[in-house]
Write a structure and sequence with these properties.
Layout lengths: L1 E5 L2 H20 L6 E5 L6 H12 L8 E5 L1 E3 L10 H8 L11 E2 L8 H14 L5 E4 L21 E4 L2 H7 L13 E4 L2 H5 L3 E6 L5 H9 L17 E6 L8 H15 L1
Parallel strand pairs: 1-10, 2-3, 2-6, 3-5, 6-9, 9-10
Antiparallel strand pairs: 4-8, 7-8
Helix pairs in contact: 1-2
Length: about 260
Amino acid sequence: MRVIIRDSKKEASIWAAHYIANAIKAKAEVTDAPFVLGLPTGSTPMDTYAELARMCEAGEVSFKNVITFNMDEYVGIPEKHPESYHSFMYRNLFDKIDIPAGNIHILNGNAPDLDKECEDYEMAILDAGGIDLFLGGVGEDGHLAFNEPFSSLNSRTRVVTLTQDTIEVNSRFFGGDTSQVPKRAMTVGVETVCSANEVLILAFGSKKARVVAQAVEGPVSHYVTLSALQLHENGIVVLDEPAAGELKVNSYRYFKAVEKTENE
């Protein structure tokens, strides 16, 4: 696992955006095949999305040959609801870049057969050639996408019931009213994410420090689903200083030293 530590969320987010843009351009140099990108929602990736949008507008990267698959969506919420993940993605990224509409994939939380929707989503990922890079965040309890604690590390896209902790955290998007937060969601599985060629996880703020330390330094466990990234040969965790606050001193020094050596 590679760990990148930056002074601030802004710096870390910009680093991630440039890493993604460089990956898109690197693939375009060797093949006409589309770059397949997995994407999250929530407050964590917003600065990364803003930088990707800026880069696209400036002509520094194009998404014309990029296919995207989002991590999750609430069940039963109207697609045009301001807090649906469809709305979030168009508002914060898709309306600001040159990606063709047909290249965008987001789970349909109002599908008549939710299980079939999940199965079809997995097949669509395979048909696209698999995901080149999956960008993600992590919850305060260590969940990856909506794979709450005790989710199988072999899980694939499915319908899940959200924990009360997640409902309370997400209530900030619903005026602080937990009763307005959907109780179920559709999510890619831990194995779906870890099947990507690269996985890039963002974690910012002191509230993420405990689970970051558990995921990076602790055992691989379904209690902290992010810890599955330890088994990925191309897993990267990007932190700001507060999120790195509970790493052991020697771990912190090791990751900083490795990055310094790579940049020399």
